[in-house]
Amino acid sequence: MKSHVFGPVPSRRLGQSLGVDLVPFKTCSFDCLYCQLGCTTCKTVERKEWVPLEDVISQLKGKLSCEPDYITLSGSGEPTLFSRLDELIERIKEITDVPVAVLTNGSLLWQEEVQRQLAEADLVMPSLDAGDPATFQLVNRPHESLQFEKVLAGLISFRRRFRGRYWLEILLIDGVTTTKAALAALAECVARIGPDRLLFGTVTRPPAEACAVAVPSVRLAELAAGFSPPGEILPDLPEPHFVPRGETSREDILALLARRPCTVEDIVVGLRIHKVEAIKRIESLTSDGLIEAVSGGERPVYRPSAARFGH
């Protein structure tokens, strides 16, 4: 059975996040310049049961012993493409009190059905990377049926309807969305949406396109402070404080890396294993050609090899 539950992943936003992947790898309505998983291979707005709901629930039950802070619907594509979101959230709440978060690009929030199905989530965190149609096309490279005005209207209307926590995340690309005009357009959109929290980030892992360049941290903080409400910078991950749970399998590491490229330290925290074991597993997977290291600044970032996904 294909793994649909992964982690828990150390999240700068959500603590220890147990991920639930609801679509095949890189099935998304966007093809963002900055995506850490590479270019979208299935760009679609089709909503269906991409993976079996019963398999997801079964796997989730087997993972709850890790005591996550959140169960997060996210992964390797756009979770709102999954057509049984309401049933999934209801079933999760029947088996655990762990809050449910949905990380979404926000592209389908204009749909009445999507808004209804997300109603019982505890936290919805959509993204907004552009404040005007031209920048939206440049940065997000959306499905041809999606227009900026429609997506923005969905972000606004869902905010008015949703009773849970609504956090808006903006990812800035240096020289692309950091111009005076681009920032002013973003600020106007944020004011219209009115999120509970406004979170800012930038490129931290190797992106799909080399033109997606990180904003220096000091500059990012300055830009975030100029928004209303003032934006918060995603914090660095804390040093791990846990008792290692013992050995983990190669498939556990592959499942984690398939949804999120990681450093050795990310793997140690996410899977609660000794660093020595993580390094041994990484060396073995690299030697077998299943994963590869890419430049990630001071520390290498590991992801599945191109051959593993056939691209």
Structure write-up:
The chain is an alpha/beta fold and 311 residues long. The protein has two domains: 5-233, Aldolase class I (TIM Barrel, Alpha-Beta Barrel), CATH 3.20.20; 250-309, Arc Repressor Mutant, subunit A. 34% of the residues lie in helices and 18% in strands. It contains eleven helices and twelve strands. It has helices at 53-61, 85-95, 112-117, 133-140, 148-161, 180-193, 217-225, 250-259, 264-271, 275-287, 306-309, and strands at 5-11, 15-21, 27-28, 42-43, 70-74, 100-104, 123-126, 165-172, 197-202, 232-233, 291-294, 301-304. The strands form three sheets. The chain has an eight-stranded mixed beta sheet with strand order 1-2-5-6-7-8-9-10. A two-stranded parallel ribbon has the order 3-4.
Total of helices = 11
Strand content: 15-25%
First and last CA, distance: 23 Å
Number of domains: 2
**pLDDT < 50 runs, ≥5 residues:** none
Subunit arrangement of the protein: single chain
Give the strand line-up of the largest sheet: 1-2-5-6-7-8-9-10
Main sheet attributes: strand count, strand direction, barrel closure: 8 strands, mixed
H and E order: EEEEHEHEHEHHEHEHEHHHEEH
Helix and strand content put the structural class at alpha/beta
> What is the fold named in CATH at topology level of the largest domain?
TIM Barrel
Shape: globular
Q: What CATH architecture of the largest domain would you give?
A: Alpha-Beta Barrel
- Mean pLDDT, rounded to whole units? 89
Proportion of residues in helical segments: 25-40%
Instruction: Write out the CATH superfamily name of the largest domain.
Output: Aldolase class I
**Tally of strands:** 12
For the record, what CATH class of the largest domain applies? Answer: Alpha Beta
Using only C-alpha atoms, the radius of gyration works out to 19 Å
